[in-house]
Amino acid sequence: MITVLAGGTGSVKLVRGLVAQESKVNVISNVGDNYWLYGLYVCPDIDTIVYGLADLLDQERGWGMKKDTFNFLRQMEVFGEETWFRVGDRDAATHLIRTNMLKNGKNLSDITKWMCEKFAVSANIIPVTDNSIETRITTDKGELHLQEYWVKHRGKDPVLGIQYIGADKARPNPEAVNAIHDADMVILAPGNPLTSIGPMLQIKGIRKELSKIKKKVVAVSPLIGDDAVSGPAAKYMQAAGIESNAYGLAKMYSDVCSNIIIDSKDRLLTKKIQSLDMRVFETKITMKNKLAEDALANFILKQVHV
Ligand code: FO1
Ligand code: CA
Ligand code: CA
């Protein structure tokens, strides 16, 4: 049994590759970029993984449902609402039904399980906590919700800091703690280390459980050289005072992780990372197609012995 800690867009390809090869996969999902929109509770990272595994994800964008339409959003615009967050019509149904279930007293874990059933997803997707965590970005113009910073303002302002509101008080999902404890291997997916994996590591019970079994924890770098394969990871790392390369990542994860997979192009960093008492594995980390997803998943499952 393997357990993956995952964000959304940066993580989903590897998760898909792993699920194709392993019968029992737990996916502990970030909730830090969940966002209330028009009274609907949107969980981008959970939905990206669910849609990705159900083959419903818009692959090009990396979020939302493929071939979705945007009539609902257009009507909200007619009503004078802000429409920078592009929820599609089918996607909106997911948020609406989830919000109704929350209002009826269900927790996010149960709702996510129900969604997995509805979408015929076999992996066990576990929100890292049923409490609220909000990732906020401080810029020179003030503090914004991650979605406001990244989607509304297109991530253009300099980042001065990152906060995880509620993370210190959040109770780890007991099922997530067990999934870490019982796993043969725990994988930190190549999601954004500050905004996808970072919020989960801020939860004390999660961090502690990972550190206990860190010999079994394998991180996959989302970076090549000093930049992310995609997205703003490098910018956030620099803002957090972390060297934006595989070495900085390894150092950031060194309390919770003893193994790291880096791109072969980064092999000059291997010795330096090994000095952190980490095992380093070099391979191709980009996943441009299904074949590459399977290859990286296969490499982790077959070449990395923990
Ligand atoms: N990302 C965007 O860049 N623009 C959007 O309009 C957008 C809409 C959206 C709707 C539903 C959903 O689940 C995700 C969506 N995302 C959108 C992606 C997502 O919010 C971000 O990529 C991450 O949360 C930041 O890591
Ligand atoms: Ca995300
Ligand atoms: Ca970049």
Automatic annotation (TrEMBL):
Citing just one GO molecular function, the answer is: magnesium ion binding
Which InterPro entries does this chain map to? CofD, CofD-like_dom_sf, FbiA/CofD
Sorted alphabetically, which Pfam families does this protein's record hold?
A: CofD
The alphabetized UniProt keywords are:
Magnesium, Transferase
The answer on whether this UniProt entry bears the keyword Cytoplasm reads: no
Keyword Transferase, does the record have it? yes
Q: Which domain of life is it from?
A: Archaea
In its UniProt entry, what is this protein called?
Answer: 2-phospho-L-lactate transferase
Source taxonomy? Archaea, Nitrososphaerota, Nitrososphaeria, Nitrosopumilales, Nitrosopumilaceae
